[in-house]
Design a protein that fits this description.
The protein is an all-alpha fold and 424 residues long. It has helices at 2-19, 21-52, 55-80, 85-101, 112-140, 146-174, 177-196, 204-207, 213-229, 231-237, 239-262, 270-295, 299-320, 326-354, 357-387, 392-402, 404-423. The protein has a single domain, classed as Growth Hormone, Chain: A.
Length: 424
């Protein structure tokens, strides 16, 4: 009996994939698409380093990757709440496959502008994909399976970060970045094929929406008003942006420099960068799964775990900053990933449990907008910090200090919510 109880949480994930073919197709599309995403990121970063050798240029790549989805966010949220979500996902995958093939044309330093332009197009299209994917999740699984589906999807992101970053680093380091770009395009085509097989019927609340421009504008404003009224939802939706602005965003820029300058392995540090992303993926995958063993899907437990996630993020940054050796840097990256993964997964779970289906597209799009804008700003200050004279270790210590701000604010919000609950 004790053995059955111990293995039950793990069987639940496999059971969901077996009995829900629509979620399984969505999940398989995520697997192959994310594999290509990490090939593309590592290839792009390595190519920018090779062509420019500039910290600001690296930061510029991450700024564009984050700013493009922000700019399309208002439209993306409305689209996800007005049209067939499956068709949106298939169309965005096909368009991204076409755009990624353009990366093969970037060969010289004076063509870096083309890499930036294609990155903006790719990530702008992704700005429609990710909120829609989060929104459709609640349409494909039952309410009691939401926590399992969200945790599995997030763990998959982390596993593919590890696998995709490691394999992408090997491919970029051994066969060159252009092979990585070609593989990325193929994965988008495979993803579109899996998602196309989903049997999807639009929820009735989405079918009732009017088709006029005025109605679309009203929907967007209605989404903002919902967040204004539901302050707790707003606080939860702001956590990914807070995490990115203070630590996760600049950390990606600094990982590139770490791999290229301090511990270079492979062509342009592509192999060591892949290993760093692999460590980050291991942390973000293991952290939420292990924490959910204790929290379940209980809202208050999820909220307290988010605070633990922020604290672990700080610990990971403190271990990383001295740059003693590459194994310690990898360990620190894992710890930082555990903390960030808990914050990311559990805030998504709270939103899935709280926000009604007809509002999910706009809420997740608004959350993604805030996250991408914060990430763009974080990439800018991360790259600029190195260019103005801070050492890599000093920049990481600065991130460690800034992480205390969202940690303290979430602790204050959690304490206030618990006090309000006691009074009711």
């Amino acid at each position: 009996m004790a053995q059955a109880v111990r293995w039950k949480p793990h069987n639940r994930y496999l059971d969901l994939l077996r009995r829900n073919p629509d979620y399984r197709h969505l999940w398989l599309g995520q697997v192959v698409s994310l594999l290509g995403d990490w090939f593309n990121l590592i290839g792009s970063a390595a190519l920018v380093v090779e062509l420019t050798r500039s910290g600001f240029a690296i930061g510029g790549l991450f700024i564009i990757r984050m700013l493009a989805p922000f700019l399309v966010g208002p439209l993306a949220g409305v689209v996800a709440d007005r049209y067939d979500r499956r068709q949106i996902l298939v169309a965005t995958d096909l368009l991204r496959a076409l755009v990624v093939l353009g990366f093969l044309l970037v060969r010289r330093p004076d063509q870096v502008w083309l890499l930036y332009t294609l990155t903006a197009l790719q990530l702008g299209i992704s700005g429609f994909f990710f909120p829609t994917r989060n929104a459709i999740l609640g349409d494909l699984v039952d309410e009691e399976d939401l926590g399992t589906a969200n945790a599995l999807s997030s763990a998959t992101w982390s596993v593919m970060l590890s696998v995709g970053a490691a394999v992408g680093g090997l491919v970029a380091g051994w066969w060159g970045v252009y092979t990585a770009f070609l593989i990325d395009a193929l994965t988008f085509l495979l993803s579109a094929g899996f998602i196309y097989r989903i049997r999807y019927r639009m929820p009735e609340a989405l079918q009732r929406t009017e088709g006029t421009v005025a109605a679309a504008l009203h929907q967007y404003v209605e989404g903002l008003r919902y967040l204004h009224r539901q302050r707790d939802v707003l606080h939860v939706a702001a956590q990914k942006a807070a995490l990115s602005l203070t630590s996760a965003g600049p950390f990606q820029v600094l990982m590139v420099v770490t791999a290229r300058v301090f511990f270079p392995l492979g062509e342009s540090g592509g192999l060591s960068l892949g290993m760093l992303y692999m460590g980050l993926g291991i942390g973000t995958g293991l952290g939420p799964i292990a924490a959910r063993h204790f929290t379940g899907d209980r809202p208050w437990s999820l909220r307290r775990a988010i605070l633990v996630g922020y604290l672990l993020t700080g610990v990971g940054l403190a271990l990383y900053a001295p740059l003693f050796n590459f194994p310690l840097v990898l360990l620190a990256t894992v710890v930082r990933g555990i903390g960030g993964g808990i914050v990311w997964v559990f805030t998504t779970q709270l939103l899935l449990q709280t926000v009604p289906t007809e509002m999910r597209g706009r809420v997740f799009a608004s959350e993604f907008m805030a996250f991408t804008l914060a990430s763009a700003a974080a990439a800018a200050w991360g790259g600029a910090a190195l260019d103005v004279g801070l050492s890599l270790g000093q920049a990481v210590w600065l991130m460690c200090g800034l992480n205390l701000i969202p940690t303290g604010l979430w602790a204050w919000h959690l304490r206030r919510r618990e006090a309000e609950a006691l009074c009711t």
